[in-house]
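Question (not urgent): is this output format expected?
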Amino acid sequence: MRIFTFWRDQNSESLMSERSPVTDHREQLMDLALDEARAALEHGDVPVGAIVVHNGVVIAARHNERELDDNPIAHAEMLALVDAATHLGQWRLNECTMYVTLEPCAMCAGALVNSRLGKLVYAAHDPKAGAVQSQYELLFGDRLNHRVEVTAGIRAQDSADLLRTFFRARRKTNSTGED
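Got this back:
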């Protein structure tokens, strides 16, 4: 697990790190999630990455590993939630923010509610399986005992481009019979 420390610059409200400065700290944090998404490509997984931040520190950074581990629930979000809970020594993540490169599916959205995640920031919408805003609104139900604050669209184009490139290559490989 990689840990990145962020701090407040004395002259501004933005968070800074050892990485190159970005105007919006959410963009910088989403860049870390995009780095994780790219790591999924190394083992043929859909390039989705997630990080969890607590008090300005990245406490979990994961990417999809379904293909790598033959595990149907090894989504980046699920793995990051487990790592974050282990790091904190508790399952309640109400003081944490997750940055993920793609809108969570129904399984992951349910896990976000059940972990009591404080905030979710995601990049690209998922028009086929998105369960936060696109297909379902699982984080906003009136009957839920917990609400997750949601921000969408941070680095959306970068995430969408990465996914589009991955699926185009996969379709091309499948159409030529190679794999």
